[in-house]
Write a structure and sequence with these properties.
It is a single chain. It contains 16 helices and 20 strands. By secondary structure, it is α+β, with helices and mostly antiparallel strands. Strands 12-16-11-15-13-14 form a 6-stranded mixed β-sheet, sandwiched between helices. A hairpin with a 7-residue loop joins β8 and β9. The N and C termini lie far apart (54 Å).
Length: 558
């Protein structure tokens, strides 16, 4: 029997919620096991990278969205069990019969940290800022085009250097507590709520933003919160420490235990462990492969296989990488299994796909990956053949390419392994590694200032298209000049159908084109996360969609 799209999404949500909840529980203590009386409610956390942006329309990475989602709150959010629940919204949306209009009532009496009311107009303003081409948001067009009515038209008009009207965006404030959203795509209530839970749809206070002007979101003094915490100290994207404090004006402040969260950037995994063991940190950043085995049987180790994928993107503006045989050689010339088991050694697995395994399942429990299995696998012998053919087509015997990566220990180890493998298996190739701070790497990737970039993707919502639509010709997240008309058509088909089976079939065909036919990028591994959580921390919560951690559920115990 054909299942309705809503049933499929509900099944997906329940399956992932069960998975994440089970993993989260490993770092938690049951209620009453330890007392929190007279214990300072202060949490100390380690992060691997700095926050690139605290402007929700400009953020593109997990670190930024984690911070944003702890100091701000949108229409919907994720609870401790990863269920999508109302936040600013007062219940579920009212959905039109055609599934293209959503009326959301906001809770009454909500205020920003400065006492201003949170209104429907705050959402309209933020979304218009996000889609306005003048602001050069990456995620605004990505999250709205083809989804929110009018977004694509605004983007297209700007591209053609024609006038556009932000008021044509399909988001209207009927009154202070009524937001009406019109969509191009047919959506179920569950899909809509999942979309709205993402950080790009957070509200912004127009008066505050415009008063701050260019200084908005540049540091803690130029931020305004409506969430459980507010930023107390943060000096900008180069800051290696930031402090969040409880927002007493938050709607659910009585249920927020923590008074203060101090986050420090530590790019040295052993240094992070030393800080944790000496009592200077309560939660570490992700542990490096050489440290994970030391804590194999330690109850403080929390681990899970995340849907985040790491891959190499090829900039096709480079004539060498525009050659399909060169890309195919690069994508198949390194041993992913050895990388996962020997270099990472933390539970991560080799990825031969562009949509992760164990991420979404249909109503019968069948994984999205089942249809395509592995694509673009390691094969050094074939890689040499592709390489030789590609060099002949280019009229070259030697090639030098840059590999751009982040400056964390893990990234450096992976990039060095890739360099060694590629140079070993592809005669005449020289790889020049550049490891730079995360925010700088994101900036260069966005501007397409690279040959090959070691990057990746974590899902924004519970649907395989959150990966697939990255690579359409007009996607703001493409950032590698890849273009295939058949691929674009399949994504458009997937976005417009209400038949879940048809949608998955289209997305699976698109994945084969991306990897099997075009070798447009090289999947590397699916990440497993391992970190240490103090037994004093009760209620540690991580998410696999949209944002990594929620601190509002944490309580410190003795």
């Amino acid at each position: 029997m054909k299942k309705a799209k809503g049933s499929l999404l509900l099944a997906i949500i329940l399956i992932l919620a069960t998975f994440v909840s089970a993993c989260s529980g490993k770092g938690e203590k049951s209620a009453g096991e330890k007392s929190s009386a007279n214990v300072p409610q202060e949490l100390r956390v380690l992060e691997s990278v700095e926050i690139p942006s605290m402007d929700s329309i400009m953020a593109t990475d997990a670190t930024s969205f984690t911070a944003l989602n702890n100091v701000n709150e949108g229409l919907y959010g994720l609870d401790q069990d990863n269920n999508i629940v109302p936040a600013v919204a007062d219940g579920d949306p009212e959905v039109s019969k055609d599934g293209k209009q959503f009326t959301v009532k906001l809770k009454k009496g909500l205020v920003w940290a400065n006492g201003d009311p949170v209104t429907a107009a705050d959402f309209v303003y933020a979304w218009q800022r996000a889609i306005d081409p003048k602001n050069a948001s990456t995620y605004g067009p990505y999250m709205m085009n083809g989804k929110i009515t009018g977004a694509q038209e605004i983007t297209d008009a700007a591209s053609a250097k024609k006038p556009y009207d932000l008021n044509t965006l399909g988001a209207k404030a009927e009154d202070d507590t009524t937001l009406v959203v019109n969509t191009d795509a047919v959506m179920t209530a569950d899909f809509f709520k999942g979309l709205m839970a993402f950080g790009s749809f957070l509200p912004q206070n127009q008066k505050f933003v415009e008063e701050k002007g260019d200084k908005y979101a540049s540091n803690a003094n130029n931020l305004l919160s409506n969430g459980p915490f507010k930023m107390k100290a943060w000096n900008g994207s180069s800051s290696t420490e930031w402090v969040m404090v409880k927002n007493d004006k938050y709607r659910d402040a009585k249920k927020v235990h923590l008074n203060k969260i101090t986050v420090n950037v530590s790019k040295d995994s052993q240094g992070s462990v030393n800080a944790f063991e000496s009592g200077e940190a309560d939660i570490t950043n992700k542990l490096s492969s050489d440290i994970v085995p030391q804590y194999k049987d330690d109850k403080r180790l929390v681990n899970w296989l995340d849907p985040r994928l790491t891959w190499l993107k090829f900039n096709e503006d480079n004539k060498i990488l525009a050659n399909e045989n060169i890309r195919r050689a690069l994508a198949t010339a390194f041993n992913k299994d050895d990388l996962a088991s020997e270099v990472l050694n933390n539970g991560s697995v080799a990825a031969n796909y562009a949509v992760p395994k164990d991420f979404v399942k249909d109503s019968d429990g069948k994984d999205f990956r089942a249809a395509n299995g592995d694509l673009l696998t390691y094969n050094a012998k074939k890689a040499k053949e592709y390489w030789k053919k590609g060099l002949q087509e280019l009229g070259m015997t030697k090639v030098s390419l840059g590999l751009l990566g982040s400056d964390t220990d893990a990234s450096k180890k992976v990039d060095q392994y890739l360099k060694d493998q590629l140079e070993k298996n592809l005669e005449g190739l020289t790889i020049n590694i550049t490891n730079i701070p995360f925010a700088a790497r994101i900036d260069r990737e966005t501007k397409q200032q690279y040959d090959i970039v070691d990057t990746g993707w974590a899902p924004d919502y519970l649907d395989p298209i959150t990966y697939s639509d990255l690579f359409t010709t007009d996607s703001s997240n493409n950032q590698m000049s890849y273009s295939n008309k058949e691929y674009d058509a399949l994504i458009k088909q997937a976005e417009s159908t209400t038949d879940s089976k048809e949608k998955w079939t289209a997305l699976q065909k698109a994945e084969k084109i991306l990897l099997e036919d075009d070798a447009a990028l090289a999947p590397v591994y699916q990440q497993a996360y391992n970190l240490l959580v103090s037994d004093k921390v009760k209620g540690f919560t991580h998410h696999s969609v949209g944002t990594e951690y929620s601190y509002k559920y944490i309580e410190m115990t003795e």
